[in-house]
Amino acid sequence: MSFFDKMKQGASDAAKKAQQTVEITKLKTQISLKEREIEKSCTYIGEAVFRSYANGDWKQAGKDIEGYCLHITGLRRDISVLEVKMKEIKNEKVCSCGKVVALDVRFCPTCGNPFEDERYFDEV
Predict the structure, then answer these.
(1) Are 85 and 99 within one domain?
(2) What do you get for the CA distance between the two ends of the chain, in Å?
(3) Same domain, 61 and 113
(4) Where on the tree of life does the source sit, at the highest rank (predicted)?
């Protein structure tokens, strides 16, 4: 491989890494915004509970709290999807024990859990 080929390869790798970093930063920003929205919803839940306590009307609080809880559940689901996308970009996956490993690993180095070979399922 010539000197210029190595330079081209290095520049290509750097550009790919920069693009990966930009995509991960965007996903982290989206996750952060959703986490702030969850915090606001939790605050609203607390306010609804206190308002109900002060007014002695627990029926309305139940409806409000249920709506906020459904909203939080949806946001958490969205965050999970974004985290999976981040792992895909980083070429990582998560074991059931919680350990983050490289995408091409067949067994978890922590617990020994075997991973299914996703390539097999893609080909079938």
Answers:
(1) no
(2) 37
(3) no
(4) Bacteria
Whether the pLDDT of residue 121 is over 70: the answer is: no
Give, for 25, the enclosing helix (H) or strand (E): helix 3-55
Between 83 and 10, the higher pLDDT residue: 83
Q: Could you tell me if 18 and 44 lie in one domain?
A: yes
What residues does 94 pair with on adjacent strands?
100
Are 17 and 68 contained in the same domain? yes
Domains held by the chain: number: 2
Domain that holds residue 68: 3-90
Q: Which two tokens stand for residue 6?
A: 């190595």
Strand-strand pairing, 92-94 and 100-102: antiparallel
What string of DSSP letters covers 46-60?
A: HHHHHHHHHHT-HHH
Does this model's pTM top 0.85? My answer is no
pLDDT digits (tens, 9 = 90+) for 7-52: 878 888 788 888 889 999 999 999 999 999 999 999 999 999 999 9
